[in-house]
Amino acid sequence: MAPPPAVPEADHQDDDDGIPEGTGVDLRVAVRRLKARNTAPGPDGLPGKDWVLASEALGPRLEGLLSACLERGQFPLRWKTGKLVLIRKPGRPADSPSAYRPVVLLDEVGKLFERVIVNRLAEHLAGTGTDLAEHQFGFRKRRSTVDAIMRVRALTTGDAVARGGGCFGGVS
Q1: Mean pLDDT in the chain?
Q2: Which GO BP terms apply (predicted)?
């Protein structure tokens, strides 16, 4: 990870608008999520369960690393590099491209960092962010893709259509 471009000290602000350091709470939540999943390792060969086991000993160092990434606004390229694996779908001919499902395996430490970022975004948007529209589903706790699909379904088959309304989709 290359250092960020030099920034004059006068431009630094020590107010509440700065990025908070990674905390043990951030890391514990992200590690707990890893613990609940049994996933294949990425290019580094370390499965999530190894990070869970090592998190107690490595916690302070890992927190420092994640904090440095947040402060610099950098996501290490290695954490974005994946290993492509093709998984054969049952009942399909082996010589057909549609017989395989591509899966990209990423390093678990990158997933930890992503989880910390997602949790912070969700917390910010729920608390101090701008008012979100009622039908905003991304980065909202207790709202999922299923909720969004159910809303679209209700709009297309429910009262709006019964009253003569409609639902239009266009391509721009």
Answers
A1: 77
A2: DNA biosynthetic process
**What are the residues facing 103 on neighbouring strands?**
85
Coil vs helix vs strand at 160: helix
* Residue 4 DSSP code: P
CB environment 88-116: b (16+ within 10 A), e (fewer): eeeeeeeeeeeeeeeeebbbbbbbbbebb
Sign of CA dihedral 123, 125, 131, 136: negative
CA 40 – CA 45 distance, rounded (Å): 9
User: Counting beta carbons within 10 angstroms of the beta carbon of residue 45, is it exposed (0 to 12), middle (13 to 18) or buried (19 or more)?
Assistant: exposed
Contact yes or no for 19/71 (Cβ under 8 A)? yes
Q: Are 34 and 112 in contact (CB under 8 A)?
A: yes
